[in-house]
Every structure is written in C-alpha cells, then in structure tokens.
Design a protein that fits this description.
The chain is mainly α and 376 residues long. Helix content is 68%, strand content 1%.
C-alpha cells in the first residue's frame, strides 16, 4: 500500500508513474468510504473492496520497478528487507497505536474489559505485522479479525509477506510469473467456493482478513502481486521493438479518462453471484494498471496532486478505522452522517500530519540505520 512509484537506478533516469500514484490515493479514499458507510445502504460500494487487489497489483509493479535491477546487481536480501520494513513500519506503528487507543476508549465507554497482558502482546506483535492470534477480550468473545483493533492492517501483513518473497520472485521468468499468478487465482477461486459451501457467505475473493479464511489471503495477494510483476516485465522491460508498439499518452484527457474507468470499476453495483468481483481481480485490475502505466501526463500540477495522493494514501489507510471508532465513541449522539464527515476530515488531516512528521523527522532513514547492523 505504501507509495513511491520511483526507481533510483545507477544507469537509468528516475521514472515516475504519476497516474499509478493517483490510483493508489483514489483507491484508498474508496476503501475509507467502504468502511465508513458500507455497501448495505450504498450498493455502488458492493464491489469496491477489490481496490485492495488493485493495491496488490500496484505493489508487484512498483517493487519490481524499484528493486529488481538492484537485487540483480548485488543488493543483499537483508538490505532489501531493511528498506521495505523501514518504509512500512513507522506508519503501521502509528496505525497500531491509533487502534489500541481507540479500542480502549470504546471499551471504556461500553464497560467491556480486556486482559491487559494479552492486549499488550497482541499489539506488540502488530508492530511487526504479526496478526493477533490471541483473544484479549475478558471474558473471551473469539477472534474475528487478524488485527482486531485496526482491521485493515491485515492487508499490510500479506503485502509485506509478498514483498519479502520478491527476493525469490525476481528470479522468475515471465512465463513462470504468468503460471504462478494463474495458479494462485485458481487456488483463490476454489478456496472461495469452499468457504461459500461451508459457511453460506457470498462467493467472493474478499478473503484473508479473518481466521476462518486466513490461508486464502496468500493466494489472493500472490496472484495479484505476481500479475503486477508480470505487467512491468512485459510493458517496461520487453525488447524495444515490442514496447515501442505500446502507445504512450502524455495528455490530461487520457489520465482523467482512466481515473473514470477506475471509478466505474470500483463502483459497479452488481455482485453477479461472485462473477464480477472475480472478473475484477483477475482481469480488470491488472488491465487498469497496464493501461495506467502507459499514461504519463506532462502537467506539473496534475503530477503533484497525483504524487501527494499516493503518499498520503498509506497513513490514511492505516488510521481511518480507529479514527472512525474514536469519533463514534466521543460523539455517540451525533447524527451518523455528521460522524462520517468528521471522521473523513479528521482521518485525512491526521494523515497529512503523519506524513509530514515522518518525512521531516527522517523516521524511515533512522529505522534503516537502526536495523543496518542486523539486516545490512
């Protein structure tokens, strides 16, 4: 989910994919809407959760773009993991803190008790992207989410796993990437069918966030992550006589057009017995990234906005659910729509502040230096 669509190679000029940055920012806002107002009363959000699968495709594309050449040129696995962890960990830690504070505030308002030791252990694990496998409620109520105090962090766990596996994925040929991605899509579909048959839930690729379908999170993330890698390999690293045949647009109209297509895809209101969300994951999301990467506007204000949306998307994703819980806890009598508007403003404002603090305090660089003696 973290932004940064840039490659800093020694021989190649810095290349940016600003439309993809914009994808990331817009998709994060749609995920926020999905969690704040839900698809029950707003059917246009019924399939918007596949924005997460678009994030996974983007991650495969971006990480390949940023690290493939460096890993092939001698970057150690430890240095690579250090840089990936340092990029994600500070914002995730803030999300974990927000989740813990919001949960304790809500529990205090409702009289719900927690086991302090278990609560501390679960959240200490969350700092390292480890899912919560222990019920900290007292009395126990069961574990319904991998990250119970901040549900969306489940996808960061899977994304980090995929980024670590990139150390091995980067050695794969294009055919192997294609076969691996398709195999994971098939496993995901068959697993989702099994979940539907055994639980009665709708057929959906939206799995991985809860213990009962935790294992299906791996084929879900790997399918899209490998697809993102394949897209980059085919469109950016293919022989020049092939890539030059792929049109590149540098105007604003195609950029706004592809954003419109993205909104239409994520706001499609019909589930179609599971056909549409799987079509979105397998075909539409990869196709959107493929086309978006070939649109490179040369307009400074557009690129700045797209870049900033991409940067702020990660802190927004990590804190928006705890912020909503805090607003509902301290403004319990406010109309629901007021709660949503206040939460949107507070979450976005806090995300801007978090991004500014992390950048100004050079937090990522400091984490990298701290881990360098261990990881390199």
């Amino acid at each position: 989910m973290a932004s940064g669509v840039v490659y800093q190679g020694k021989a190649a000029p810095v290349q940016r994919f600003y439309v993809l940055d914009g994808f990331r920012g817009i998709a994060a806002l749609i995920v926020v809407l999905y969690h704040y107002i839900g698809p029950e009363d707003y059917p246009f959000l019924a399939n918007s959760y596949i924005a997460l699968d678009m994030f996974f495709v983007l991650s495969g594309f971006v990480i390949y773009h940023s690290y493939a050449r460096r890993l092939r040129s001698g970057m150690s696995a430890g240095t690579y993991i250090n840089q990936r962890f340092a990029r994600l960990a500070p914002t995730v830690a803030i999300g974990v803190l927000f989740g813990a504070v919001a949960t304790l505030a809500y529990y205090n308002s409702t009289g719900q008790e927690v086991d302090a030791t278990r609560f501390a252990l679960v959240h200490a694990g969350h700092l390292l992207f480890i899912p919560g496998l222990v019920d900290y409620n007292d009395p126990a109520t069961g574990i319904f989410e991998l990250f119970p105090s901040n549900g969306p962090l489940w996808s960061i766990f899977f994304e980090f796993v995929a980024s670590v596996c990139f150390i091995w994925f980067v050695r794969m040929r294009r055919r192997a990437l294609l076969i691996g991605s398709l195999a994971c899509f098939i496993i995901l579909f068959l697993g989702a069918c099994y979940v539907t048959l055994t639980t009665g839930r709708l057929l959906t690729p939206g799995v991985g966030f809860a213990p009962e379908h935790f294992l299906l999170g791996f084929p879900r993330v790997f399918a899209s992550f490998l697809a993102g890698m394949l897209i980059y390999a085919l469109t950016q690293e293919a022989p020049r006589y092939l890539t030059r045949r792929l049109p590149v647009s540098r105007g604003l109209l195609p950029a706004f057009g592809i954003y419109g297509v993205m909104l239409a895809m994520l706001f499609f209101p019909f589930h179609m017995s599971g056909v549409y969300p799987f079509l979105g994951v397998v075909v539409l999301c990869p196709l959107l990234i493929t086309v978006g990467a070939r649109i490179q506007p040369q307009v400074r204000w557009f690129n700045w906005i797209s870049d900033y949306l991409g940067q702020v998307s990660f802190p927004l994703y990590c804190i928006h659910v705890p912020v909503f819980l805090l607003v509902k806890t301290y403004l319990p009598d406010a109309p629901w729509k007021i709660q949503v508007v206040v939460s949107l403003g507070a979450a976005f404002g806090a995300s801007v502040l978090i991004l500014a603090l992390i950048e100004s305090m050079r937090v990522r660089q400091n984490v990298t230096k701290l881990l360098k003696p261990v990881l390199g």
